[in-house]
Amino acid sequence: MSVNLSEQRPMVAAPVAETVVLAPVPAVTRAGRIAVEVAKFGVVGGSGVAVNFIVFNLLLHAQKWAPMTATVLASIIAMGTNYLGFRFFAYRDRASRTRQQIVLFFVFSGLGVAMESALFYAAYHGLGMNGSLWSNVAKALSIVLASAFRFLVYRTWVFQHGTERGAGAR
Prior knowledge:
The protein is mainly α. The protein has helices at residues 30-62, 67-90, 98-126, 132-158, 162-165. α2 (67-90) runs antiparallel to α3 (98-126).
């Protein structure tokens, strides 16, 4: 048997276009969704905290307003800016209930302001955290504790997914 080494293999035309099949994207886990939600909440909340601190310090230290007036007014102003951030950024994928959503947001935010103010009062007056630095530490602690409450109620009752509230809730 002889083998002809000079023979070439027949050339096959290259395909004109290849079809690329992408693997299906795995479903996002519940923990992943919550992590993204916490991150978005943090971005909006962080900007609200900045507004809260700026207004608080301007009123308390620059304008010499009473500490409780400064903390309550700063929290209320931050609440308004936070609503816009939550509604149009953090929870924009959630179904809108306009009037009901706004009422729930401000009711729960009002409770958050009350919690934040009570915690600030306890630290400022009760623990003597009343200097320039310590008043800001007291404010920070009160914001952190009230924010945990806000996160839970905003995601549970204010900015719900459409399927969670039922068809007749609109």
